[in-house]
Amino acid sequence: MVHGVENLKGDSSRYAMRYALCSMSDKEMPIMKPSLTYFIMAGLLMLVLTGSAFGESAAFKDNIYNPGKLKPIDSTLKVKVGEVAPDFTLPSVGGGEVTLSQYRGKKNVVISFVPAAWTPVCSDQWPGYNIVQELFDENDAVLLGITVDNIPTLYAWTKQMGQLWFPVLSDFWPHGEVAQKYGVLRSSGVSERALFFIDKKGIIRDIQVSDINVRPDLEYCAIMLEKIKKQP
Known about the structure:
Layout: E1 2-4, H1 12-22, H2 34-50, H3 58-62, E2 89-91, E3 97-99, E4 108-113, H4 120-131, H5 133-138, E5 141-147, H6 151-161, E6 168-170, H7 177-182, E7 193-198, E8 204-210, H8 218-230
Helix pairs in contact: 1-2, 1-8
């Protein structure tokens, strides 16, 4: 099923606490796992000390371009839940190339398409995943971030964000080819804000295409990763 995201905003502390609560059973509710507790507390402490969302510096914020309010969704999906995810190989900001099928039989994969570097929501969304890296680790999953920007642009942007733990890939040339395969390339040439949840067999288990103007709610990501991990 394809999910359009409602306007679910909130700060990173809400995301962290929501994940903590939704990941516990009734019996576990009184006591959180120590490692997850420390992880969440460390993330929240970082936010308190920096005094800014996801640790963004004032200089970074000054370099962000605001495109204004855009058409929420401007594409038609070309893949469906239950299908094999189209394979691809893209250059990584960290060097070398990453191929989707290299994770087959090893990791669940979440592909995060975001529209463009140096824009407000994108610059907030990806650093947010740093706070919940353990969410992916505990569910045997890897996150792949993709934009249609070129490598130099992505290098400068991600360096300003701080170190991201997941691969950041460039779908610049042929322009937007991977986004086009998945059906999330907009008429303006940027991608949608979309998440594809793929299991270890390479099968698409869920698709979330969000309003491009809104950061996706992290609680949904947590729920889907746990669901995929539990499936046979």
